[in-house]
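Write out structure tokens for Trigger factor ribosome-binding bacterial domain-containing protein.
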Amino acid sequence: MRNSLLLLILPFGSAFVVPQSPTVRTFGVSLHAVALEPEPEGGEEVTPLKTMAGCRMKKMEELKNVKSENGPAYQFWMTATVDGNMIKDNHTELLKNAKKKANFPGFRKGQVPPYAMPQITQFSIQEAIIKTVEAAVDAHGLKALSGSDGQVEVKENVEDMVKGYKLGDPIQFTAVLNLSYNTDNSASDVIDEPAGVVDVAAKEV
């Protein structure tokens, strides 16, 4: 599935945004919350082949003008929770790399100024969403389409996720994406958490 996912982060109207992006408590876990795009009506729930907590996938409609090597292609709706530790690990790595190249006027060489931290957090969340989408596609026995046909549209604005975010908190999101069924998948494996990174093209907000 390498090079097959295109992540588009699209801003949505304020009607779907909680202004302060509050943190809520769910089953003892701190969940950083932004208002989610409403779940679409209809569709067919997809039974996962691998265990992935906090994730659902629905097949919505067949894409008549889209070709796939694995047969018919469909639009899917999904929701999932991004592991807060994954975001934290991404943040640590990005900050480490940023410090190696940091040379901002008025700051010591290697020091990242406070105003740059939200952007690092945003990139950390984006990368974790990509990994989570990837894991969800695999867990449900599906396969991303190639090229622009395989784009993923995340319904929530990452900039709103960053507001008030506490590093390490999980984040829930929804998305629509075009997929086909992966005929090579088997139900023998079980995963406990998303793993693996792919090359993607990301459109910044």
